[in-house]
Amino acid sequence: MHVPDGFINAPVSAAAGAVAAAAVAVSLRGARRELAGAGAGGGTGAERTAPLAGLVAAFIFAVQMLNFPVAAGTSGHLLGGALAAILVGPYTGVLCVSVVLLMQGVLFADGGLTALGINISDMALTTTVVAYGVFRLLVKVLPRTRRSVTVASFVAALLSVPAAAVCFTALYALGGTTDVPIGKVFTAMVGVHVLIGIGEAVITALTVGAVIAVRPDLVHGARGLTRPLELRTSPLAAAPAATPDRPAADRPAPVPAAVPAAPRRSARRLWLAGLAAALLCAGGLSYYASSSPDGLEKVAHDKGLDTKAEQHATADSPLADYSVKDIANPRLAGGLAGVIGVAATLAVGTGVFVVLRRRKAAGATAPAADAPAEQH
């Protein structure tokens, strides 16, 4: 659903850019809290979440290369807003998808540069807000189980895709550059993206379910499924027996037995597994993806929305169209481009989230350092 340049006029594109900038600014503040408060025990997993958030962005980039057929001559791909919001939180999720869209637009000429604000508003903001809202509503009414989280993930992802189609239709109604009846655009966009939403829901539910199965403590949407360790009174820690010198009334109350701290579980295996999956999708499986146009491309071609589409500003990029130029073998060219995209998205995403986490940590320690010493 990457909107190219020329589909929407300049004033609406500028307004969408302003909305996208505001959403990113708000998400930067919210992501600091999410990254600092991750993990089963509050901040205990914060140092692991920034790299995992970067991995989520890289994984979304990779899976977006896997177009799957949804109807005759039409394909779809993951949008990723629901997946990112459930795994790392809604604010961080907006940033994850925004990083992916930025990498795709700059490096691969996918999605217009003047339409970047439209794509962020549509594919990052709308999908994340709708998906996370539906997800939180469902987990409140469903039993607090891992299966319920997976089911809620499926429904949230399913609804997020047609919601993005509705958002595009609204933007097109405000600033479309071609004279096409908006009713036809709405019917075609929502109809095909309901089908694409099924694929999005399957991918999201499978991914969330797989992560929950091994590390539920690292899934933002699964917080509360695991109970924290509680201190309990141990019979071995009973009070001393009564003696003539120490009557029973004077005995001290039993002291709770010390419970050993839970061993710190490394997220390295999950991170490596996720990276391997992303590289496999982008570097290998993408060669077998459907070559049919995606939902927006198909609707634009059939309804004439693309008559004023403009050439991408980075059409001459050596990675344009997800293929490394000057490499004759299409499988090698596409696979190498996918690997480069995963690496670039991982590096940029992780860098952004590490900086955010460190700024949050610095802001939290500054007041304590500046506080005056207590007077005795």
TrEMBL record:
Regions that span the bilayer: 7-28, 48-66, 78-103, 115-139, 151-174, 186-214, 270-289, 332-356
Q: Which UniProt keywords apply?
A: Cell membrane, Membrane, Transmembrane, Transmembrane helix, Transport
Principal localization reads membrane
Its BP terms in the Gene Ontology are: transition metal ion transport
Q: Domain named PDGLE: which ranges? A: 268-358
The residues forming the signal peptide are: none
Q: Where in the cell is it found?
A: Cell membrane
Q: Which InterPro entries does the protein's record reference?
A: CbiM/NikMN, PDGLE_dom
A Pfam family cross-referenced in the UniProt record is PDGLE
Q: Does the keyword Nucleotide-binding apply?
A: no
Keyword Cell membrane included in the entry's annotation: yes
Could you tell me the membrane topology recorded for this protein?
Multi-pass membrane protein
Query: Which residue stretches belong to region Disordered?
Result: 240-259
Tell me the protein's name. Answer: Cobalt/nickel transport system permease protein
| Species this chain originates from | Streptomyces yunnanensis
